[in-house]
Design goal:
6-stranded parallel sheet; 480 residues; 20 helices; 7-stranded parallel sheet; alpha/beta
Length: 480
């Protein structure tokens, strides 16, 4: 699989796994920086920080990965197990969270409850970090825990960096709101150097100052100026104007240095998906529509059935990963129960629908896939760009409308803005079918997606902007 670039993984494993005395005469001053990575809950956040870990290993860094317990979903647990099996030289440290009373928190979402538990437990992190040897050169935290880690890192005099696992455009909103706390009252937000963001693109929980999402988002935003630097999973060819506005100080003066680090699918993520690949192997080149709304989006039963009708009516073959539960530990129902027997029979004639996990990176890179119907989670956007697959953006929640705007502006895909947030309305199958036809029938979109993919490859190639940014960071950490 393409994606984990640079020297081969085998070469990196041999070099990194060498004992410290084989690499340096000084135990206290290892020749490579020691980087500690601190994730947060949710596959959309876990995936990029694990990909960052792989990139650091390939660049000869010593890596310690902090895993928080309990783990919310089985998907996260399985993903971590595969990662540590593939990279035994990465040190794993478990951080056991204090339990909190869910009744005292304004949220029922288990992923947000986990983040709140981290905030209440972060004082216990100091002793764990102090015990690490060699002394860490840097901490890199996911954005949803970075603000909590800042005082701990300051007490230990450790450089603390934020990994922002979304678009640069979403980061511009994140940064701009620091100086505009009354944004919720406005019909639109004008960000200098970026442009206007309509109120309807703002995640609804962010418009409620009392929601846990809003409190965490704004709290993290206020602290972003106190991190040593920000790593953003993007590249110039996708968000050139936004990156220039951010680094040029147009959005907000005093922002920490930004580094673009494109984080791509890696070998350890691959899992058995034989039936899906066998089916794809039988299809014509670029003839299949791939449909996947990520690990956190569960559509309503009515919307699922309308989507099924639209896929059938589009006339294109399709591979659909169907999810109707937010957390994968919940009891599952059969496809016949979810879709209805009659619709399920029609679907079998045109496509393949599955409820089990699917290797999205591998599917998108398959020659048969020509279009991607996606919620526009940022990992999905980056993977679509890398594999040169055009998108039909259908944002559902969180940062996804901002990301969909990036997709549209870059030429990677199209976005139907009136479809709204998840649960606001049921989009009918007839309209879904028409938009799929528009995406798949557009030669311009196909060529634009190819162009974006070439830009992605340039960014991570020798002398590319993302490769250079990562090397500069590692040099800085080594000097620390």
């Amino acid at each position: 699989m393409e994606g984990c670039r640079g020297r081969s993984i085998t070469q990196s494993l041999q070099e990194i796994s060498a004992p410290p005395h084989a690499m340096s005469d000084s135990v206290d001053l290892p020749p490579y920086p020691h980087v500690v990575l601190i994730p947060t809950a949710g596959m959309g956040h876990l995936t990029p920080i694990l990909r960052l870990a792989v990139s650091l290993v390939q660049h000869n860094c010593l890596v310690t990965f902090i895993t928080t317990h309990p783990i919310v979903s089985q998907a996260e647990s399985d993903h971590l197990s595969r990662f540590f099996s593939a990279f035994p030289q990465v040190s794993q440290k478990q951080f056991h969270l204090l339990s909190i009373d869910a009744k005292t928190v304004d949220a029922s979402d288990p992923f947000w409850l986990q983040r709140e538990a981290f905030r209440h437990s972060v004082h216990l992190l100091s002793s764990l970090l102090s015990s690490l040897h060699p002394r860490p050169s840097a901490l890199v935290s996911d954005r949803f825990v970075a603000s909590s880690v800042i005082p701990v890192a300051a007490d230990l005099d450790l450089p603390n960096y934020m990994l922002y696992a979304s678009s640069a455009k979403m980061f511009s909103l994140f940064a701009y709101l620091l100086s505009n706390p009354d944004f919720a009252q406005s019909s639109e937000i004008h960000i200098p150097g970026i442009g206007t963001i309509p109120r309807s693109w703002i995640p609804p929980p962010l418009l409620n100052p009392n929601s846990l999402f809003s409190q965490i988002f704004m709290g993290d935003g206020r602290e972003v100026v106190n991190v040593k630097g920000v790593l953003i999973n993007t590249f110039e060819g996708l968000e050139s104007d936004t990156l220039h506005a951010l680094t040029g100080g147009k959005v907000l003066a005093g922002l920490p240095p930004l580094s673009t680090v494109q984080l791509l699918p890696c070998e350890f993520e691959r899992r058995e998906s034989g039936a899906q690949l066998e089916w794809l192997n039988e299809q014509e080149t670029e003839s299949v529509v791939f449909v996947n709304f990520g690990s956190r989006t569960a559509l309503s039963r009515d919307q699922i059935r309308e989507l099924g009708k639209g896929l059938v009516k589009s006339g294109y073959k399709f591979l659909w990963v169907l999810k109707d539960k937010i957390v994968d530990k919940e009891e599952e129902e059969s496809l016949d129960e979810v879709l209805g027997h009659e619709l399920m029979e029609k679907i079998k004639e045109r496509g393949l629908v599955v409820k089990e996990w699917a290797d999205q990176g591998e599917i998108l890179s398959h020659r048969a896939v020509g279009g991607f119907v996606s919620h526009c989670g940022w990992n999905s956007v980056v993977e679509s760009a890398w594999t040169r697959v055009r998108m039909l953006a259908w944002p559902q929640h969180s940062d996804q409308k901002i990301n969909a705007d990036v997709v549209e502006r870059s030429g990677l895909g199209l976005w139907v803005k009136r479809w709204g947030w998840i649960g606001e309305e049921v989009v009918k199958g007839d309209e879904i079918a028409e938009r799929i036809k528009e995406m798949m029938g557009s030669e311009q979109l196909r060529l634009q997606a190819k162009r974006v993919g070439e830009e992605a490859r340039k960014a991570v190639g020798a002398g590319g902007s993302c490769e250079n940014a990562l090397k500069l960071l590692i040099r800085e950490w080594k000097n620390n």
